[in-house]
Amino acid sequence: MSTNKMDVKQLRIMANTVRQDVIRMIAEAKSGHPAGSLGMTDVLVTLYFSFLKVRPKKPKDPERDYLVLSNGHICPALYAVMANRGFFPKKELMNLRKIGSRLQGHPHREALPGLESSSGPLGCGLSQAAGMALGLKMSGKKNRVVCLTSDGEHEEGNTWEAVMFAAKYGLDNLIQIMDRNNIQIDGTTDEVMPLRSLKKKYEAFNWSVIEINAHDIKQILKALEQADKTKAKPTIIIAKTIPGKGVSFMENDYKWHGKAPSREQAEKAIEELKKERLRIR
Amino acid sequence: MRLNPNLFTENEEKESTRAGFGKGILKAGKQNKNVVAITADLAGSTKLSAFIKEFPDRFIQVGVAEQNLATVASGLAHVGKIPFITSFAMFSPGRNWEQIRTTICYNNQNVKIVGSHAGIGVGPDGATHQALEDIAITRVMPNIQVIAPCDAIQAEKATIAIAKTKKPAYLRVNRQKSPIITTKSTEFKIGKAQLFKDGSDVAIISCGPIIYEALLAAKELEKKGISALVLNVHTIKPIDKKEIIKAAKKTKAVVTVEDHQIHGGLGSAVAEVLAQNYPTRMEFIGIKDRFGESGSDKELYKKFGLTYKHIIKAVKKVII
After folding, report:
1. Is B103 in contact with A128 (Cβ distance < 8 A)?
2. B226, B315 in Cβ contact below 8 A?
3. Average pLDDT for residues A207-228, to the nearest whole number?
């Protein structure tokens, strides 16, 4: 199984491609969640093009690494990354949220090969990932499990049940990457429900904690490498992101959590991203 | 069908259906190394002790966290395990219903949900711990099988059977000791109802240990010249339409009996089958839109209208 590792410049270019795909997909669907999708694009691209062992043509390969997307609403970014990685044809991306599509509004495991779980209802991805990690350990297997979560879903009790559980069973084959973007549907996390120091909370729960700027691909790679080496504890990478990253009028505005751009807005966004692409080195 | 010869004699044997589950999971565990047990701080109460002793490395304790119980199990099933999750039915599938819906049923993961202490028969713990809605909330979900065994032997067989099905299942078991109705040689097949007693005037359709009251009612009715058929619909989903329609055609009158709310339970499931295929006069014995309370199982069955005497009254009403 090859990881087809891209270098940092290639990863940046791929992230730009994915961001354009995400804008086009959500604009075409006329609904969806652009802010989180754009915010986690760099992480997803780095995972699929430089870290995870996956075989797009054999998605159920028993030796694969597992990616569990807990905050399922950012699936446009996951779908775009999967299509670019070769799991399914790119033209299918325009079917997002349409009748009969394999690209459901929130991911459905049974619909699209390569998805490890159906998700969207928040707070239950981490415990599924922990269950997978424990099951793999029980079977003496080396596969890794990576779970993407949001900061908002740390308001769910189920998340903290999973946090305790993963620490109790020393799941060092589990890496959580939390999208720390400080927004949720009704406003900023500070207004809706202050989460305070997630770093201190996780340390108290006996997790290994790494904080990064998750738009710096070198930092993402380094954090993953460190997480991989950590023994006897699960690792959380607190990924500080800018919601709507890459599109000036979406960045840091919670109103773009779950709103599709109009055709004009989408065109403007694509223009910005195309200009940005020329600056990548 | 040949029932336990000791039934209704001085030698009547009693055992809880949860104890039957405990024996079943031990056997299922011996048959398949992928069977694992997970509990939310109720290993003893849900009779996992023998399994834990035999397979300590295949037991997982999540603490008092039923949502985690269901979702960790979904993850375990995803990597090839066959998790049996145990708690009180009130909390699993009660508290963790949405997790079961999304991560087990929608994902179609091979998880077995074992809800113990179901029904008002749980007794003195009171209404907070008496799951009277679990059949209703599980049978509405696609992909899941819903089974309520009538005695310990059947619970053991049902446990072994669901371990082999490769899809979600809910197994409803009970705290209280109840009569052994079937025998070791009684065949158990998921989705296949059992004709415990033939009859021609009325069909009493039931599931779970309360079917003992139905058999008792049939015995009493016989003395009064009323011939009652008793059908054990241990599998509420997928339900045995054929046997239910056959019983209705034969008797033209149906009484359903369950230790569960009449809304959404076995009675509703039977009514759905008959309304579409063979509309039949029906009466429903069950909890009638109320919460339970503390008391012994016998006292509660009497107070809430679940005894053979209540069944006889319902039979007389339905046959006109």
Report:
1. yes
2. yes
3. 98
Cβ-defined contact of B75 to A118 (cutoff 8 Å): no
Q: What is the ipTM, given to two decimal places?
A: 0.96
Give me the CATH topology for the region B194-319: Rossmann fold (3.40.50)
- Angle, vertex CA A136, rays to CA A132 and CA A142, nearest 5: 125
For chain B, the structural domain boundaries read 14-179, 194-319
Q: Which of B58, B78, B99 sits opposite A124 (nearest CB)?
A: B99
For the question of whether the overall pTM of this predicted structure is more than 0.95, the answer is yes
How many CA atoms lie within 13 Å of B203's alpha carbon, on the beta-carbon side? Answer: 26
- If you classify domain B14-179 with CATH, what class do you get? alpha beta
For chain A, first and last CA: distance in Å? 29
- Of all residues in chain B, what percent carry a pLDDT higher than 70? 100
Rounded-to-integer distance, Cα B120 and Cα B213, Å: 14
Q: How many CB pairs under 8 A join A and B?
A: 100
How far is Cα B169 from Cα B21, in angstroms, rounded to an integer? 14
CATH code of the region A8-279: 3.40.50.970
Helix (H) or strand (E) holding B165: none
Domain boundaries, chain A: 8-279
Which of A252, A222, A214, A280 has the alpha carbon at shortest distance from A16? A280
**Whether B142 contacts chain A with CB within 8 A:** no
Per-residue pLDDT tens digits for B250-261: 999 999 999 999
| Distance of alpha carbon B12 from alpha carbon B298, whole angstroms | 17
Contacts of B177 (CB under 8 A, 6+ apart): B14, B15, B16
pLDDT per residue over B92-132, tens digit each? Answer: 999 999 999 999 999 999 999 999 999 999 999 999 999 99
The mean of the pLDDT values for chain B is: 98
Which of A68, A141, A162 shows the shortest C-beta gap to B68? A162
- A163, pLDDT greater than 90: yes
Closest approach of B279 to chain A, Cα-based (Å): 37
Q: Is A61 helix (H, G, I), strand (E, B) or coil?
A: coil
Mean pLDDT of B58-85: 98
Structure tokens at B76: 């375990």
